[in-house]
Amino acid sequence: MPAAVSGCLLARSMASHHNHHRQRGAAALPVINIGRLGDKDPAARALVVQDIARACRDRGCFQVTNHGVSKSAMDSALEAASEFFDMPAERKAAFACDDIRSPIRYDTSSRDGISKARSFLKHYANPLDHWVDSWPTQPATYRKKMGTYAVEIQRLSMQLMGAIVQGLGLSPMYLEEKLEAGLQFMALNNYPQGSSRAGDTVGLAPHSDIGFITILLQSSPGLEVTHHDDGGAWTPVPVIPGALHVHLGDHLEVLSNGRLRSLLHRAILNTDEARVSIASIHGAAMDEKVGCAEELVDEGHPRMYRESSFHDFLDFLPTNVKAYRRFVETLKIDSA
Ligand SMILES: O=C(O)CCC(=O)C(=O)O
Ligand SMILES: [Fe+2]
Q1: Can you tell me which atom of ligand 1 is nearest the CA of 275?
Q2: Who has the most CB within 10 Å: 95, 97, 101, 263?
Q3: Protein residue with its CA nearest to atom 8 in ligand 1
């Protein structure tokens, strides 16, 4: 439905920007070298698992280095995303679609309630051969570049989830099959350059992601995070060359029965340049219900959340436009 997409929507939402004071979180965000996660020596692996567990618990996010995703795959993915967004509006509008269940969707408007000044392309990626035919054929290298990146990120997500569930006291294999057959949902985000006179301008309003984890790559700074103990202060996520940012989603909060919390994050317009980010959300399959791990429910830790699927999340989304709530809040079981 190309008619639904008009170039002026972006300009209109930019005009209604909000000013924010940038506050710095107390301590730098954790950067974890995960090179030894695959080590045969369990003690070497355990040290990394411990660092990840602490970062998940205390900050809800961390960056990883030595993660095995090649620098060229990362650069190429950002290139492919930029080249897509640089195409003429009509070409991108071919992917515009009102149905949030569409396998691929391009939009420039703020109909979702949180996009203030972003255009995005969203599509699925795992398993790649199932979804790649729905991806853009232009730019000509898009499928190759984004596909290579997607596969490497899916592999990394499984390795990270193995460590995260181990950090919760579960077997590293706990989710392996569900993740293998699970959902990889990619959001390519495009933000205009912000005005330095306007102060901090929100491109994407605060929200948490569905899924267990999100792995995010940004072309330049703009992502900001706030964890539950941060007292509302926003911490900018620095761009560390070669590193990838990881944060926790609503379904990990559910799985962990509240031991871990999903991360609230937002994107600020970069005043030096237009910005592109690629978020890869990793969760269970579309109709797979995710509940609290039984191993983490006991007398001292009563079940905190109802089970839900990605499908349930999509049903919830259109109802979440006026006053934003984290999906996971709607899943809480009244303990009263
Ligand atoms: O652009 C960013 O850094 C954040 C993107 C994001 O949060 C998302 O796509 O869910
Ligand atoms: Fe997000």
Answers
A1: 1
A2: 263
A3: 279
Is there an atom of ligand 1 within 6 Å of 74 CB? no
Counting every residue written for the chain, the total comes to: 336
Nearest CA to ligand 1 atom 5: 279
* Closest among 77, 75, 249 to 157, alpha carbons compared: 249
Q: Where are the domains of the chain?
A: 69-330
CATH of 69-330, one of 2.60.120.330, 3.40.50.1010, 3.20.20.30, 3.40.50.300: 2.60.120.330
For the packed helices 71-85 and 142-167, what is the interaxial angle rounded to 10 degrees?
120
> Which ligand is closest to the CA of 279, given by its number?
1
Ligand 1 center to 152 CA (angstroms)? 19
Q: What is the pLDDT along the chain (336 residues), one digit of tens a residue?
A: 333 333 223 332 333 333 333 444 457 999 999 999 999 999 999 999 999 999 999 999 999 999 999 999 999 999 999 999 999 999 999 999 989 999 999 999 777 888 889 999 999 999 999 999 999 999 999 999 999 999 999 999 999 999 999 999 999 999 999 999 999 999 999 999 999 888 889 999 999 999 999 999 999 999 999 998 788 899 999 999 999 999 999 999 999 999 999 999 999 999 999 999 999 999 999 999 999 999 999 999 999 999 999 999 999 998 988 889 999 999 999 854
Ligand 1 atom having least distance to the Cα of 279 = 9
- Residue carrying structure tokens 């660092």: 51
| CA–centroid distance, residue 267 to ligand 1 (Å) | 6
Q: Which ligand is nearest to the CA of 245?
A: 1
**For residue 127, cis peptide bond before it (omega within 30 degrees of 0):** yes
Q: What is the Å distance from ligand 2's center to 227 Cα?
A: 14
